[in-house]
């Protein structure tokens, strides 16, 4: 009996020397737990026993007596996801630096109370069913560096205040239902990644709306309009650019092809004029298809590994440098179908490497070689003479 009493006293002593979680944080975690649940097969909340120290819970990380990171449903804890809503009590975790909700079935609005988390640096709640509008108060969180709310059901406009966050590095809002125009990010001098793909955004980009710090820019699958040449030529740090599936007009700035890009996606817009790089293009993939581009094809594009120039209004002969690099297997994809090209110098007995694809279908010439065209190119190999004559006449 004496040994048991001594052990109990010793245990109480050690517990008294440890930091006890702040009562406000303790109650906030209880509210968060009540509003969220494991989906079938998930065991994330199995460790959330409030008779124990909450700092030992899965996804809860503490410094001293405060919660500094909350990673709800993290896969490392054996969770395939959570369901339910995010409780407004999350805004009471005043020392929170990282708030993450892993992919699952969490629904409902993003609590306005998140705007009280002045220490927050990372907000990641993607691949769930979050709805409603993005709280404008997020623009008050001056320490925010990453916002990832992609693959949800968010609607309404992107709050202009978010574009003024001084420390913002990454903003990912792809695959939502956002509308309105893209706010100015001129004040976000540290912004590296901006991904607004697959929304319903409208309007145009003003010349100074995007910072030169951008390295990744994806605005595809929206309804954006206007010219892009005066916007793009300043973004000389870009290594990825996707403006496809919009309604952009105007010409492509020559400087763009000299940027450190690995991927350039401008397809399915209304861009027009010639394509004239300054020097040999080192971009691995360039897709300019389904536009209104014209003039002769520049031999400086023959160094591109995957080149899509189909469904435009290019004229003249295909430069010989393309043939050389294609036969040497240095070009994987060369799609030139549905233009007004008049010739290509290639031996009819030449064999295209198995790793390469060439399509010349529906131009103003008879394709001199067997081609590997996509099915959507159609079955007509030659453009009707009246179309070629009409285009050349005009």
From TrEMBL:
Alphabetized Pfam families for the sequence: LRR_1, LRRNT_2
Keywords: Cell wall, Disulfide bond, Glycoprotein, Leucine-rich repeat, Membrane, Plant defense, Repeat, Secreted, Signal, Transmembrane, Transmembrane helix
Annotated signal peptide: 1-19
Locations listed in the record: Membrane; Secreted, Cell wall
GO biological process entries: defense response
Chief localization: membrane
Leucine-rich repeat-containing N-terminal plant-type domain boundaries: 25-62
SUPFAM superfamilies assigned: L domain-like
Any single GO CC term annotated in Swiss-Prot or TrEMBL for this entry: membrane
Domain of life: Eukaryota
Topology relative to the membrane: Peripheral membrane protein
Database matches in Gene3D superfamilies: Ribonuclease Inhibitor
Entry's family note: Belongs to the polygalacturonase-inhibiting protein family.
Protein name (database record): Leucine-rich repeat-containing N-terminal plant-type domain-containing protein
Naturally occurring in which organism (per UniProt): Vicia faba (Broad bean)
